[in-house]
Specification:
The protein is mostly helical. The chain contains 5 helices and no strands. Helix 1 packs antiparallel against helix 4.
Length: about 150
């Protein structure tokens, strides 16, 4: 069994911190909205409000995973962002096809139109940042510049 070296990479900085801040805001907003919807009107639209709660969980997981730059947490961040993208696309399409299931706005309904479509754009920004900040990619770029 090989001993693993500690991960000494620093946490996100620059635009990464802005992205994490936006995810954190969405985590709070989605959690607050879904909590109120489930407490007040759960029987009115259980699917919509349940999906709103799922969005909240995904945003919380993505926020924590993006904020931590460890190898495992990067994998968790990738999974959360992919689930987020899948969710916003599926819920967005379903809310247009079956508006009766979404009598009230949710985070992902209508592709996030109630949030200025940020929920639709955010996973793409998350994936771009995860790709751009990938340690393996950065190391390859650094090795390439050393050879020049």
């Amino acid at each position: 069994m090989t001993a693993q070296l500690p991960d000494t990479r620093r946490r996100a900085y620059g635009l990464g911190r802005v992205l994490i801040l936006v995810y954190g805001i969405f985590a709070l907003a989605a959690t607050a909205r879904s909590t109120v919807q489930l407490i007040r009107d759960a029987e009115a639209a259980p699917l919509a409000y349940g999906l709103s709660a799922l969005a909240a969980v995904v945003y919380i997981v993505a926020t924590v995973a993006l904020a931590h730059n460890g190898r495992r947490m990067r994998r968790v961040a990738w999974a959360a962002v992919v689930v987020e993208l899948t969710g916003v696309l599926m819920v967005g399409a379903l809310s247009l096809a079956r508006p009766d299931l979404f009598p009230d706005e949710t985070v992902w309904s209508h592709f996030g139109s109630g949030y200025l479509y940020v929920p639709l754009v955010l996973p793409f920004l998350g994936m771009a940042w995860l790709w751009r900040s990938a340690p393996v990619r950065i190391e390859r770029l650094a090795e390439g510049s050393r050879r020049s």
